[in-house]
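Task card 7
Instruction: Convert sequence to structure tokens.
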Amino acid sequence: VILFGMLNHDQYGPVLVLQLCPGGSLRQVLDRAHSGGITLPWLLRAKWLMQIASGMAHMHVLLPTRIIHRDLKAANVLLSATDLDKAVAQVGDFGVAMAMETIKSTLSTRGSTGTLAWMPPEAFKGNFSEKSDIFSFAVLIYEVLSLILPHAGKSTAEITDLARAKFKVSVRDA
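Output:
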């Protein structure tokens, strides 16, 4: 998504002025497909996944400071056009994205940010890296292929218990 500028709003703080994406979110399109309202060809889904991967790769190699998104999911991917065949998938919603230097300075707080079903196990201990986004991208692939939300119908506690039971979380920094 193209960033046109930024302003400081008195009530809301910093506000980004971004490119309009009239196609809405990828999650909205997946929901329409899941309910039978539209058909999403496999090649179109693959094209969007490649565009998302390319966008994330660009964020991860930015200099002087790389960016970790930390909340990659279909709801945070915007489509550039309402004609889905022409739409370009663009990564948006950088509300929890952080520059690597900032992440390194806040890791000791053990805070977690992101949406639980898309978070890698190490994020439960506050460890984020490019690998965190890669884990989230894998969950996003599942979301695009299956058309359903990961862990649909499960509570936050159930998702947390599942993640902790399935993965041994290393105490080393990522």
